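Predict structure. Chain length: 253.
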Amino acid sequence: MSLTLAHVVLLVGAGALAGAVNAAAGGGSLISFPALLVAGLPALSANVTNTVALCPGYLGGVGGFRAELAGQRPAMRVLGTTAGLGAVVGVGLLEISPVATFRTVVPFLLLLGCTLLAFQPPVARWVARRRGERPPGRAALGSAVFAAGAYGAYFGAGLGVILLAVLGVLVAETLPRLNGLKAYLALVINLLAAALFVVALPVSWPGVAIMAPSSLLGGLAGASAARRIPPAVLRAAVVGIGGAVAVALLAGA
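Prediction complete.
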């Protein structure tokens, strides 16, 4: 990985913004993953490097939700274990998938992440309506969190949106507390995936060294940044970046 000064500036900014967006709403990988592609990394290496580099950002996000996580230790323990098992499966799928196959599906995964983020407001309204109803059983919750963990480890763009939607429908809690639980589960998924990636897949350590510190600062500042930037503007910008990269990848296929 040969980095110019412009690449370094791009990755620092992308890491900070991705950490903030992940803490505030989810979808930060739609910023950091394309930045790694622009810096010259192949798709697979960019994906695993992105996961490792954003772990500090997820940690910062959890730190920002300490108050909301109070009293949720039983759910954190059970759902964290389930999400972690899903992450192991996702890493396994990534390891056995041919590189050409991963390159082929990346544009469509990016478009999926963009779609999830674009439709976050109606999903949130649907979640609010369902919150007053009797939640489904534990099997449905466990299956959904397991699937989210597998997706998050395999690719991960839009993971926060998926987790928040799942928890909002299947867990009887307030939205701020669900956001805290979402941040915790995303941290578990990404930490476990990152640990396995370091052993088995091509992580770019220069990329991690540049993005990890800025993602931590971004994660800590996520809630504050979300208050200053209109959600619709932030969402449109992230979806636009991810969508443009997906189209460019499809055009170059």
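Summary: The two ends are 22 Å apart (CA to CA).
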